[in-house]
Specification:
This protein has eleven helices and 20 strands. It is α+β, with helices and mostly antiparallel strands. The strands form four sheets. The protein has a seven-stranded antiparallel sheet with strand order 9-8-7-6-13-3-17, with no helix packed on it. The protein has a seven-stranded antiparallel sheet with strand order 12-11-10-4-16-19-18, with no helix packed on it. Strands 1-2-20 form a three-stranded antiparallel sheet, with no helix packed on it. The N terminus is likely disordered.
């Protein structure tokens, strides 16, 4: 005798198979259909082939500069520097009285484009291992939109007081330890932070500096988009820059111009300056006041070309085959009336759908893992031969945490989308409609987002299953480096796990709906 609980699936009696046997039965169904098996086996093959073709025809553009920082990171190191030598311990102090940004886009530049002005302009004091681009350094600065900051060796950023010019700044060296301070009056000082810059020589160059990152001109249109960078210039006025102890013989603190050297640190050829601005880097003394004008940036460089994500270019193609089989796994039984027989043999309908979902999940995850690993192993050497080399494109291996996350995350995304397709097929009972819906949800947001305003396009990508592919991003991003990301670059979220959570939520929600419906309507 079987006891039935209302609102739940019947508890299996002695004549009903356990869940393990149900799983085996569903697995047997899946692998017994020859065309389904061929389609599933073709999925990783298609993935690798498409990734291979994409890699063979790709190559990096020519960067204006390839300079490595102290840790090997690809960096940009251009700024205007007024400096003098400091041997041993000491400190440098100044008042940044004012800063201003100079940027004037021509009508052709600005037409139909969104302009993003830099918020990380920097004016302050620096201690640097000479004037070679990429050398070790520490700097305290006033920024345009982020207050006072202490930065070192391009990748370290410490937030200080949220104040702007006018303000006093001080940078102190004790061995390899660099401490930064800020003051409103030059008397009472507030610590900004402390960093350790290993490898600094006994004699370093210290003094005021100014730099100004480029403005972004973003053009969006349906199906494509572009980002153009144009130089900006920041002008800053420094009052009474003072070095203690004095590094240059015969020079006294506050003695304008004497003992200070003026240099344009430049890691790249001078950019093509538009006729719309006549500003240029330089330094000028008036009494004890120094006016500096600078352009460029002192920060890590980033690229929108993620070699790992590029190696997984073929994943969406293999995904279509996997989704099609997942949908047919339930709709084919419904169309031929076999689902009614299955439910008669196993009255627990939700148990049947759960078993199907588990079988599809296991198959999709294994195939996704095989496809991702194989594609990267095949594509990696081709990318390196085509010029994707350090420091611009760091070497990677499958054991790197970011790469491992991208590989496993890709398999999880394929699993979630396959389960979503299975559940949607259960709801719609039509294979063509379910497969088309899944494909539209993955591709249409990417197409629409390119032509919509930035915030709208970003949120469209964030709220659709297409967000899941952000898990493939391995290029590091830095909070202290401004960036513009177009939707087609797969960066809807800064945190890759957030996109994975979105696609998994879609799969769980659709599966819940399918479990609810399968209990309440005829097979």
């Amino acid at each position: 005798m079987t006891t039935v609980h209302h609102g739940a699936d019947p508890i299996p009696g002695p004549g009903h198979p356990g869940f393990g046997r149900l799983l085996l039965s569903e697995w047997t169904k899946l692998r017994s259909v020859r065309r389904w098996t061929l389609a599933l086996l073709a999925a990783p093959v298609l993935t690798v082939l498409v990734s291979l073709l994409a890699a063979a025809g790709s190559g990096p553009g020519n960067p204006d500069s390839i300079v490595a920082g102290p840790d090997g990171t690809w960096v940009q190191d251009r700024f205007h520097f007024v400096h003098r030598p400091l041997t041993g311990d000491g400190s440098v102090t100044t008042r940044v009285s004012e800063t201003s940004l100079d940027f004037r886009a021509s009508q052709d530049d600005a037409q139909d484009k969104q302009i993003e002005l830099p918020t990380w302009t920097k004016a302050g004091l620096m201690i640097k291992d000479g004037v070679r681009p990429g050398a070790r350094y520490a700097a305290v600065m006033v920024t345009a939109g982020h207050g006072v900051r202490l930065q070192s060796n391009f990748t370290t950023d410490v937030a200080g007081p949220a104040v702007g010019a006018p303000t006093w700044l001080r940078l102190t060296r004790v061995g390899a330890t660099i401490s930064a301070f800020q003051s409103a009056d030059g008397v009472s000082w507030t610590p900004v932070g402390t960093v350790t810059v290993a490898g600094l020589p006994q004699t370093v160059e210290v003094g005021p500096f100014v730099t100004s990152p480029p403005a972004f001109l973003v053009q969006r249109q349906f199906g494509s988009g572009s980002v153009v960078q144009l130089p900006t210039f920041t002008r800053a006025m420094f009052e009474r820059p003072t070095l203690e102890p004095v590094g240059a013989p015969g020079a006294e603190p506050g003695e304008p111009g004497r003992g200070w050297q003026d240099d344009e640190i430049n890691d790249a050829p001078v950019p093509d300056i538009k006729e719309s601005t006549a500003t240029s880097p330089g330094a000028a003394w008036v009494g004890d006041r120094l006016t500096l004008t600078g352009t460029g940036d002192v920060a890590p460089r980033t690229t929108s070309e993620d070699t790992v994500a590029q190696g997984l270019t073929g994943i969406p193609v293999g995904l279509v085959a996997t989704v099609a089989v997942a949908v047919l796994f339930v709709t084919a039984e419904h169309r031929h009336g076999m689902l009614r027989t299955t439910f008669m043999a196993t009255p627990g309908r939700r148990r049947v759908l759960a078993a199907k979902a588990l079988v599809v999940s296991a198959v999709a995850f294994v195939l996704g893992l095989v496809a991702a690993v194989t594609a990267l192993l095949v594509v990696g050497p081709i990318q390196r031969r085509n010029g994707y080399l350090p420091p611009r494109y760091p070497d990677w291996s499958l054991t790197d945490p970011a790469v491992l996350r991208a590989v496993i995350g890709t398999a999880v995304v394929l699993t979630a989308i396959a389960v979503f397709g299975l559940a949607l097929g259960t709801v719609l009972r039509r294979a063509a409609g379910a497969v088309a819906t899944v494909i539209v949800l993955l591709l249409l947001p990417q197409l629409l987002a390119t032509g919509l305003p930035g915030a709208v396009g970003t949120w469209l990508m964030r709220l659709t299953p297409a967000a899941g592919f952000t898990i493939q991003q391995t290029t590091p991003h830095y909070d202290h480096v401004s960036r513009i990301c177009l939707p087609q670059d797969g960066c809807a979220y800064d945190q890759p796990w957030a996109g994975l959570a979105v696609v998994c939520a879609y799969a769980v929600a659709m599966l819940v709906v399918a479990l609810w419906l399968v209990r309440r309507r005829d097979a």
